[in-house]
Amino acid sequence: MQTEKYHGYTLWGHAILQQEDIMRPERFAGSGTIMRDSKVVVASGVLGAFDTDEEAESAGLSWCRAWVDGHG
Fold first, then answer.
1. In three state form, how does the secondary structure of the chain look?
2. Is the pLDDT of residue 72 over 70?
3. Closest CA to 5 of 54, 56, 50, 72
4. How does strand 9-17 pair with strand 28-36?
5. How high is the mean pLDDT of the chain?
6. Residue 54: which residues within 8 A CB-CB, separation 6 or more?
7. Taxonomically, which superkingdom (predicted)?
8. Domain ranges in the chain?
9. Which of 19, 3, 10, 1 is nearest to 68 (CA)?
10. I need a labelling partner for 44 at 20 to 30 A (CA). Which of 21, 50, 56, 58 fits?
11. CA 40 centroid distance within chain
């Protein structure tokens, strides 16, 4: 999980392991959560499947920044 502060919000990028078949390589679902004053403002849901947890977390943070820019 990655976190950052952005325009008064706390952003979280999440990676959730998605291994459907033991014979396939691991994949990670990405999502984002935006908080302000210790309260959840909005969460993204699954944004897609990624090859690494870092890519999934980065996608979540990117979604969060875009949401703040559009709604903040």
1. CEEEEECCEEEEEEEEECCCCCCCCCCEEEEEEEEECCEEEEECCCCEEECCHHHHHHHHHHHHHHHHHHHC
2. no
3. 72
4. antiparallel
5. 94
6. 15
7. Bacteria
8. 2-71
9. 10
10. 21
11. 13
pLDDT confidence tier of residue 60, bands split at 50, 70 and 90: very high
Q: Token digits for 18?
A: 């998605």
**Distance in angstroms (rounded) separating the CA atoms of residues 15 and 55:** 8
Go through the chain and tell me how many residues it has. Answer: 72
Residue with tokens 């302000």: 36
Nearest to 26 by CA among 41, 36, 16: 16
Look-up of token digits 């943070």: 61
